Amino acid sequence: xxxxxxxxxxxxxxxxxxxxxxxxxxxxxxxxxxxxxxxxxxxxxxxxxxxxxxxxxxxxxxxxxxxxxxxxxxxxxxxxxxxxxxxxxxxxxxxxxxxxxxxxxxxxxxxxxxxxxxxxxxxxxxxxxxxxxx
Length: 134
Fold this sequence. Notes:
The chain contains 5 helices and no strands. The chain has helices at about 1-15, 25-30, 45-85, 85-95, 100-134.
């Protein structure tokens, strides 16, 4: 299989070389000495990965930092909201609610906010993807 690919590669190189008008002989010899390199295609081969890999990594780090800042802000807002509901929690304790019930209430409320935020983020991503690609 490898030899057949090599033969096809050499034929393509000779065909391409016919279009090189005025090219020095040394350069043509170097062109013909090029080898065909076969890589496993499991992860794919892309020149985009090579050309833009570093920029995409920097962009991913930047996005991660923005997400971390957003998470910290949400945590801060949840803490402030819990502090503001101190009287409500005291009232619920006075009428017989246990700590487990109060924790369950806060966890369910947070879970609902997470589900709604995820749904809105997913909807936004789904609608924005064609625009970004375009």
